[in-house]
Every structure is written in C-alpha cells, then in structure tokens.
Design a protein that fits this description.
- One of its GO terms (molecular function) is iron ion binding.
- Its cofactor is Fe cation.
- By secondary structure, the chain is an alpha/beta fold.
- The protein contains ten helices and 14 strands.
- The strands form four sheets. The chain has a six-stranded mixed β-sheet, with helices on both faces.
- A hairpin with a 5-residue loop joins strand 7 and strand 8.
- The protein is globular.
- The two termini are 21 Å apart.
- The structure holds ligand AHZ.
- The site of ligand AHZ has 30 residues, from helix 3, strand 2 and strand 7.
- Ligand AHZ binds next to helix 3, strand 2 and strand 7.
C-alpha cells in the first residue's frame, strides 16, 4: 500500500488507448458502432441533477482532503511542470503529487510552437523524452540536430493524457499558488514547507472583494515551474526574494538558443531548502538566457527536477 492507503500501480499497468481502464465496469460495454443508425430510438439513461453535482464535488473534496498533505507539489503545469510530473509519477507510484495550475487550461506556453505557429521544435537529445512519453515526431535524419512535433498541442495533450492517468497525481487547475508556507530553522535558514492556494478567480479580485482567505497544502518538497516573469510567472522565486530567502534575481537575459537550453537543464536544482526550480522560472534566478521557441530544455529540465525531488525521498 502507498502512504495514502492505495495499492501502488506500476506504469505498465496503466493501459493505453487500445485498453481504456473502466473502473467498476461489470458487463461488456456498448460500442459506438452499435449505436450507428439507431438514433430514432436513442435515449440516454436517466439521471438526477444532484447526482452529477455529488459525483463531482465528492471527488473534489476528497482530493482536497487527500492532497492537503502531499509528498510533492508542482506549481505550474506548463511543459516543464508536466514533464516533471510524468517522471515523478512514473518513478514513484507511492508518492502523492499535487499539480497546482493557475489557468483553467493546463499546458502553459506549449499549445503552440512559437508565436501563432503550430510545430514544436526539440533539439536532440530531447527526442528521447518524446519516445519515452509516446509523442510522434519527424526526424530529418542522422545529421539533423533537432526533431519536429507536427503540432505543439500534440505534445501537450499527450503529456496531459499520460500525467492525468497516473493514480497518484491530482491536478488542481484554476487554482493559484499565492504564497508559500515557510519554516525558519534555528540557524535562520528558511525552508519551504508547502503552498498557499486560492481559486484563480479569487486571486484576481483581491482588490475589489473583501478578504477571501486561502487554503494550504503541506509538502516536504515544492517544484516550481511557473515560467519567466510576467503577469503570472516566476511566482515562487519572486516570493523568495521578497522574504530574503534568495538574495536577488538575475533576471532573464536575451535569446540565445544554444546557451540557454544547456544552462536551464544543468541549472535545475533545489535553489533554497524545499524549493526546486525548473523551466523558465530558473532563468529569472540565474540570469540565464531565454531560448524562444524550442522546447527540449523544458522537457529535460522536468526530468532533472524530478531527479532532484526524488533525492529527498531517498535520503
Ligand atoms: O499559468 C502558468 C503556466 O501554465 C502557471 N503559473 C504561473 N504562476 C502560477 C501560480 N500558481 C499556479 N502562482 C502558476 N500556476 O505556470 C505555468 C508556466 O508554464 P510556462 O509554459 O510559462 O513555463 P515553462 O517554464 O514550463 O515553459 C516555458 C516555455 C518557454 S518560454 C520561452 C521564452 O520566452 O524564450 N521559451 C520557452 C520554451
């Protein structure tokens, strides 16, 4: 049993599209083909509206209860956060992993390759990550230094479908991390010990609504992947600077694909006790370059962030 009382499930036990798991099904299920041409007699089974409400809310509140003590919280479900979640959930089915995403739609900037263009470019050797997750891509051959996914949304939707099938992952979307839980040790070091959350619509209205107090999640390790500074981004590291737990931010530098991608992957680490930073949020800490529309570093920074997080549980 895992720490939340569930039986651990190995990745190999999570079926793919050809064998969709139907929990609790007792009889052979109808197929769509069997419905064809029979629309005049068609009827859905009856339902009472309250059943729908209860099925949704019961699960959500049970998840709030279960994940109030998580093993790992990932802040931000962009390409780096989702890659982190995939690696962690696969490696450790016994750990409870909460993903907090401010937006209604998870995926961050990875729904398009760059500007409004569809294709997503990944420099080798990040093609290994695409094979690992099962994202189809084009490779121009041995001499080519990069591969191309025909639409960035294919990458992001595949990541989401894999990550959300893990039984030990819960995505709380439309939920913002609006502060960090911190503990000061006797030597003065600040340790991040969880996150403070609120509905995103509430956080957007702190100026014109009376105080609506937040909620909390405790966890020994937080992985922050909230992207570079902007209306939303770099949230956790900016908060750490405000609390004097990180001296200052280096600030994201100009675009240099070759320098930027190596630096982000290599630099992904625990920047302060309890806080691992990956993806473009790290460029703000280290004063690293941006890479623009090439996503290999986001995937591999996720791989490294997961590796760093797992050290905490191996100690
Ligand atoms: O909504 C944000 C996005 O989905 C989410 N987020 C930000 N602040 C949050 C908060 N609470 C909860 N306080 C929050 N969620 O974090 C996600 C960040 O995703 P992203 O795609 O912006 O970041 P990434 O680091 O995964 O990928 C960066 C992609 C970039 S930017 C770039 C450049 O500018 O040069 N190049 C690449 C490849």
């Amino acid at each position: 049993p895992t720490n939340n009382g569930q039986v651990a499930t190995k990745l190999s036990a999570i079926p793919h599209a050809s064998g969709v798991p139907v929990t609790g099904a007792v009889k052979p299920q109808a197929t769509v083909e069997e419905m064809a041409g029979k629309w005049s007699d068609f009827r859905f089974r009856p339902i009472r509206e309250s059943q729908v409400s209860r099925e949704m809310t019961r699960r959500y509140f049970s998840d709030l209860d279960k994940y109030a003590e998580s093993d790992i919280v990932i802040v931000g479900a962009g390409s780096c956060g989702l890659s982190t979640a995939y690696c962690l959930a696969k490696a450790r089915p016994d750990l409870k992993i909460a993903i907090i995403e401010a937006n209604v739609s998870p995926g961050g900037g990875a729904w398009l390759g760059g500007q409004l263009f569809s294709a997503m470019i990944m420099r080798k050797p990040a093609d290994a990550f695409l094979r690992e997750v099962g994202v189809p891509y084009e490779d121009a051959g041995e001499d080519s230094n990069y591969v191309t996914v025909k639409h960035a949304a294919l990458f992001t939707s595949t990541m989401l479908s894999k990550v959300l099938q893990f039984p030990n992952v819960k995505l709380f979307n439309a939920t913002s991390v609006e502060d960090l839980i911190t503990r000061r040790s006797p030597d003065g070091t600040l340790r991040v010990a969880g996150v403070v959350t609120n509905w995103t619509l509430v956080t957007m209205h702190h100026d014109d609504q009376s105080c609506m107090d937040p909620n909390t999640i405790n966890a020994p390790i937080i992985v922050s992947t909230t992207g570079h500074d902007g209306p939303f981004g770099a949230f956790c590291v900016k908060r750490m600077v405000a609390m004097d737990a990180i001296p200052a931010l280096g600030g994201m530098r100009g675009l240099d694909m070759n320098v930027a991608e190596d630096a982000i992957v290599k630099g992904t680490r625990e920047v302060a006790p309890g806080l691992i930073v990956g993806g473009m949020e790290l460029s703000e800490v280290d004063g690293a370059n941006r890479m623009g529309p090439t996503f290999g570093a986001m995937a591999l920074s996720g791989v490294k962030a997961a590796e760093e997080a797992l050290k905490v549980f191996e100690e």
